[in-house]
Each structure stands twice: as C-alpha cells, then as structure tokens.
C-alpha cells in the first residue's frame, strides 16, 4: 500500500516557486491576523471611550471643566481619542476665537466646526488604519494561490514527459502539492475579507456618531457664542 503524503510533506516536496507562493500567503495570513486582532482591540477601546465621554458630556458638566479634565489627563501622558479628541479640538478653537471681540458668533462657530472637521478626519484615519492591507489580502490571495496551483500543475505535467508510464498515481502527488497553494490562498483571504467588511461597517458607524456629535456640539457652542457676543454688546 502506498504511503499517503501529509500536508507538511506536500509543502516540503513542492517546487521552489510553489513553496515561495505558500510562504508569501502564510506571511500575509499571519500579518492579517495580527492586524485583525489589533483592530478589534482598538475598535473596542474606541467604543468604550465614546460611551464614557458621551456620558460625561451629557451629564451636565461644565464644558470648561470637561476640557480641563482632558488637559490634566494629557499632562499625565494619556492621549485623547475619538469623540473626546473632537471635543477638545472644537472647544480649544472656540475659546481662542471667542476672546477676539471683533469676530461675530457665526465666525466663531465656523472656526470651531473647521477644527472639529479636521479632528474627525484624523480620527477616521485612525479607524481605517490597516484596513487597506486587509482588503488587499482578501482580494489578491486567491489569485496568488491560483498562480501557485497553475505553476505546480504545469510542473507536474512536464514531469510526465520523462515518465515511462503516465498514471494517476504518478501525477496525483504533484497536483495535490499545487492545490495546497489554492487552499492557503483561501485560508488567507476569507478571514481578511470578513474582517474588512466588519471593520468597514464599524468605521461608518463611528463616523456617523462623530458627525452627529459635531452637529450637537456646534449647537451648544453657537448658543454660547451668541450669549457671549450679546453680553459684550451690552457691556459696550
């Protein structure tokens, strides 16, 4: 009875080109899994931060006090992320522009909104980090694996030219080695595609929440800017 080759034996007995394809796919799979875990932890942290900040923001706390608390954490080495980063960017610009008496409330608000838009784009870039790599792995890995399979099958059939007897048993090991490349391509692609779709949906959800917060916070700042300018006019 002929000994059946294990998966490791198929990889070790494959041609150099097929082995290079397998190594490339294995490396892409390992890196993509690292990024999947890293993104999962980051999104969970961003979600918890968003909920915590929303709870503090809508608790009725004074905005200046909330901003000072963020400064204290920043002085201790903690970096603001997500919604808090957007709030800090908008409130900092609002405080700076509000001190300029020659600017009306509309100009103060527009400056604050510009700062928050920039901060929002920065946060979305952080959320989308590594997603392009996952998309690339998901879209190209099956084709890379298919290339290894086609090359391996061509190599096996070329070997038949020198064989005295062409049987299925002669060509089967070579074809099996080649098909492993396709399997590895799918193994690398499927998790990357699923993770990319999941994370892309989460990015959209976060982006919508951030945009809603910018609109709500802008309304609060507009009322404060209008009240401040009305007070200045009465004082003048």
UniProtKB/TrEMBL annotation:
Domain of life: Bacteria
Pfam families, A to Z: MotA_ExbB
Transmembrane segments: 12-37, 131-154, 174-196
Annotated InterPro entries: ExbB/TolQ_transport, MotA_ExbB_proton_chnl, Tol-Pal_TolQ
Bilayer topology: Multi-pass membrane protein
GO CC annotation terms, alphabetical: plasma membrane
Chief subcellular location: membrane
Keyword terms of this UniProt record: Cell cycle, Cell division, Cell inner membrane, Cell membrane, Membrane, Transmembrane, Transmembrane helix
Sequence ranges assigned to domain MotA/TolQ/ExbB proton channel in this UniProt record: 83-209
Localisation per UniProt entry: Cell inner membrane; Cell membrane
GO BP: any one term: protein import
Protein family membership: Belongs to the ExbB/TolQ family.
Biological role stated in the UniProt entry: Part of the Tol-Pal system, which plays a role in outer membrane invagination during cell division and is important for maintaining outer membrane integrity.
Subunit structure: The Tol-Pal system is composed of five core proteins: the inner membrane proteins TolA, TolQ and TolR, the periplasmic protein TolB and the outer membrane protein Pal. They form a network linking the inner and outer membranes and the peptidoglycan layer.
Official protein name in the record: Tol-Pal system protein TolQ
Provenance organism: Parahalioglobus pacificus
